[in-house]
Every structure is written in structure tokens, then in C-alpha cells.
Amino acid sequence: MPHQEQVIAHGNLCAPGPPNNAGYNSNPGPVIIQTESRDKWSKKMDFLLSVIGFAVDLGNVWRFPYICYQNGGGAFLIPYVLMAVFGGVPLFYMELALGQFHRTGAISIWKHICPIFKGIGFAICIIALYVSFYYNTIIAWALFYFYSSFSSTLPWTSCDNEWNTENCTNYFGKDNVTWTNYSRSPAEEFYTRNVLAVHESSGLGNVGYIRWQLMLCLFLIFTIVYFSLWKGVKTSGKVVWVTATLPYVVLLILMIRGATLPGAWKGVVFYLNPKWEKLQETSVWVDAAAQIFFSLGPGFGVLLALSSYNPFNNNCYRDAIVTSLVNCLTSFVSGFVIFTVLGYMAEQRNVNVEDVAKDKGPSLLFITYPEAIANMVGSTFFAIIFFVMMITLGLDSTFGGLEAIITAVMDEYPDVLSHRRELFVLALVVVCFLGSLSTLTKGGAYVVKLLEEFGVGSSIIAVVFLEATAVSWFYGINRFSNDIKSMLGYTPGLFWKVCWVAISPAFLAYIIISSLLNPQPLTLFDYKFPDWSITVGFVIGASSFIWIPIYMVYKLVWTPGSLKQRLAVCLRPERTLPDIHADSMGLSPVP
């Protein structure tokens, strides 16, 4: 049997004395002891690259540039920075600190914080599953493009392919080409008709059969994921040295190439030209809040999981600041990579940049950018490295999302799973693969959109709102601050406490209320999602969040005693070895 872990580096806790601080209940409940068997990062950089790799994903490349120019260009940076400083970064810091102090995953951590909120951990795992059902399919699309790029002439260059229609219009290198509302570029038809084949599906009511080419790509993606995660952070920490750094090399190459293209300056001006009047619109601030939240990624359980493998005295405050800055700067720089190319396309089409920049979402990565690459000198090389970048960006986020589930479930059921990680990871990957099959059909793009909108969306924001409230108000901001002091040697400043108690929860509530008051119609490729599919979407969203009240009722019903006694037990955290250490230092707060 593994011996007791000495959690604190500078003190032996094998025989702690009784707590002399009255801040904890005199009958505090069982002490939770962790073991030496828990994995640890081999190097500090393994952890940092894993966090950066998770936070910096495909959304940084397409979503931020699109939202930036849509919401006032350079003026958008003001609400973006404010939302990052007062909302995103404090939540990011909170999760890193929680994971590092309690050294456990998203489910079992709640018995150390506030047991009645344990349903949050189950909700996080279900949301992470939904993400894996559609996100890896997008990576599979990129892998399909990567394979197709190994050609002297890229297949989305011309209109002479079997999937092209009479509306296909190739304007590059040609004069007097008329571009109408019915015109479709070769890149658009390659994406919609050859990769997705959505033209053979009438919508969600008839998605068609599975495309074996995409299924093979997805199988290869999950194979990579399995062998990166099966041994824990020892292996995934090495893989991210490639997957987290390579995108920056490619971004630099593409930015230099984009800057040398004719018309590139038009795109940059369009990207950054400030429209100050936009700051008066509520939607701009909502978009800024949502962008920074989904970009940094608190609430997905990933930060809790990754930081739980850190040494107890690791400087998680510095990690939070560094990784947040890297993430935000990556989003900003990605805008130059995208918009220099959009300026080039506008120059070639002889139209305004806004007419080219109408694509958003994955279409920006699978239609607009490949179209521009196809008409550059050395197009094959740039296509290959671009899709390598997309694959590695996606894989990093998948590693993080699945590690959150793995850590949470294995920490919750250690007796069953502690020595069966390889089998558990295999079972999880199989479940994710099977859950993704509907997204590989000819109407799979509609399923991806539905899962993206409802499987994550408001559900994850509501979960993080409850998480921030539970930590700040039920666990107690003083207790949480002293947890950080026991790790770092100093208490967080007033700014962080105010953010955790009031500003960050308000930031999340603002996003939730705004999204509920201003629902946007769900469309994709001129297909309007029917009302029944919206109902299905709400059921998908509720299927994760519902576990929070279900567990609350379960906990109250099965806890013995009067209602007052039950509430006291359900709200009182169990004590850990770090708690005992805090007691010995006189740091335990009075609730």
C-alpha cells in the first residue's frame, strides 16, 4: 500500500497536532489523505505548455479576428481587455489554485469545497463529452484537408472537379470575372460538397449515411489522442512540446507570408480600424465577455485537472498571468494572419474587405484561408503547414478536455480505476468515437453546429457561475485566500478577492442573461434549424446542468439528521492534509 504523501515541501505532516484555531467545526469530518501514486509533471514547462495548448485552440485563430472586426475593430480591444482583467483571468487563476491545493479532479474536489455542489463535477464531465463528440470531427476535417494538400495542384484551386457545379467561379488570375450572389468559389464547393457533402442532406431530419473518409480521419485522430493520454501526464506532457509550440512557428511563417501579399494592408486596416460608436452597443460587451471566457476555458475541468499534478508550492499565480497573456496575444496576432490574407483576396476580387470577410466560424478556416493559399506561390507547402497547425491546435484542446474527464473519474473511483488507467482511457476514447459518428454523416455539419451551440453554450457558463459562487460564498473567500497563502506564502490582494466575490460572478451572470434575452436564430449554409431541433438542443443543454440539482436533492435526502443538520453536513467541506497544515500555521479562516 502506498505510504502517506508529504504534501507540504517544507514540513512533515505525519503526526499533526490538533488544530488550535476555532475556524473549523469541532467535528470537522474525515481527513482526506492523498497518496504518492498520483502522477506529477516531469517539468514545469510540461504543465505550462499543456495549459497554453488547451487555452489556445482553433477559436483563437478564427473567432477572435471575426468578432474583433465585427465589433469595432481596434475599439473592441477595450472591452476585451476589461473583461479579461476583471472576469476571465480571475476565474482562470481561481481554477489553477483550486486544483493545485486540493490535488484532485472536478468531481471529488467538491467534498473539500462544498459537498452539496458535487453535481457540478458531473455536469462538467458530461459537457466535456459533448465537446469531444463534435470538436474532434473538426480536427478530422483538417486532417482530410491535410491529406488532400499533398498534390502539385490543390484540389480546391479549379472548377474542373467532379463535385463542382455550374455556379463555381474561379476569379484568381483572370480578368473580367463577374462575381454574383450565386457564385461559389472552388474552395467553398470543395468544403461543402466534397468534404462534408451537405448537399446530399436535407437537414437534421435526414443526415444521410456516414462518410467513411471522415470516419477514417477521426479514427486516426483518436488513435493519436489515446497514445498521448494513456500513461498520464508523463506522456501527454512530452507530446505538447510539439503540439503546443508548432502552431506558433506556423503562425509566424504565415504572418510573414501574408504581410508580403498585395493588398495585405487593406486587411490590417479593416481589422484594427477603430469604430468607437460600437462601444455603446451592449452586444459588443457581451461578445467580449463570451470570447475571453471561452478562450481561457475556465469551467471545463481542465485547469483543475492539469494543476492537480503540480507541486504544492508551485507559483500558480504567475502561471495564470503568463498563460493568460500568451492566450490573449495569440488571438491578437492571429488576426494579422487572417486579415492580411483577406486583404489579398479583396484585392484579387476587386471588392471591399468586408465583402470577403463575411465568412465566420470554421468556414473562415476551411473556405476563406485555403482559397487564398491555393493562389499563392508555394501553395502546397503553405496548405500543408496551415492544416498541420490546425490539427495540433485542436489536439492540444482535446488532450485537455479528455484529461479533465479522466482525472475527475479516476479520482472519484480510485479503488476501481487507479491501476487501470490504460483500459479506462481506451473505453473513454471508444465512447467519444461512437458519440461522434453522427457528426460524420452527410448532415454531420448540422449536428456539429447543434452540439456546439447547446452542448456547451450557456450550460458551461451557468456551471462556472455556480462554481465561482460556491467557492467565494460557501467555501469562503477568506478560507480560499488562506489556501493560496499556504501554497505561495502570501495572500491574494484585494483586487482578486473583489473579483472572485462579486465581479467575476457578475461577469458570468451578464453573459447568461444577455444570451437568454437575445437568442440568435440558428443557421448554417442557408439552412435554418427547425423548431424541433432547437427543443432537442435545449434537452442536450439541460442533460448536463440537471445533475447539479439532482445531486443536491440526493445529498440532502440520504444525509441523516434534521434538515438543519443535513444542511450543515452538506455545506461543510471535508478536511485535507493541506487544511491541517494551514491549521498548524494559524491560517484557517473563521467561516
Automatic annotation (TrEMBL):
Disulphide bridges, residue numbers: C159-C168
Gene Ontology BP, a term: amino acid transport
Cross-referenced SUPFAM superfamilies: SNF-like
Keyword Metal-binding carried by entry: yes
Membrane topology, from the record: Multi-pass membrane protein
GO molecular function, one term: metal ion binding
Gene Ontology CC annotation, any one: plasma membrane
Cellular localization per UniProt: Membrane
TM segment ranges: 47-65, 77-98, 119-147, 209-227, 239-265, 285-309, 321-346, 372-395, 423-448, 454-474, 494-513, 533-554
Residues that hold Na(+) according to the record: G53, A55, V56, N60, S295, N327, L393, D396, S397
Signal peptide (residue range): none
Keyword Metal-binding on entry: yes
One Pfam family from the record: SNF
Keywords linked to the UniProt accession: Disulfide bond, Membrane, Metal-binding, Sodium, Symport, Transmembrane, Transmembrane helix, Transport
Superkingdom to which the source organism belongs: Eukaryota
Family membership: Belongs to the sodium:neurotransmitter symporter (SNF) (TC 2.A.22) family.
Record-given protein name: Transporter
Organism: Culter alburnus (Topmouth culter)
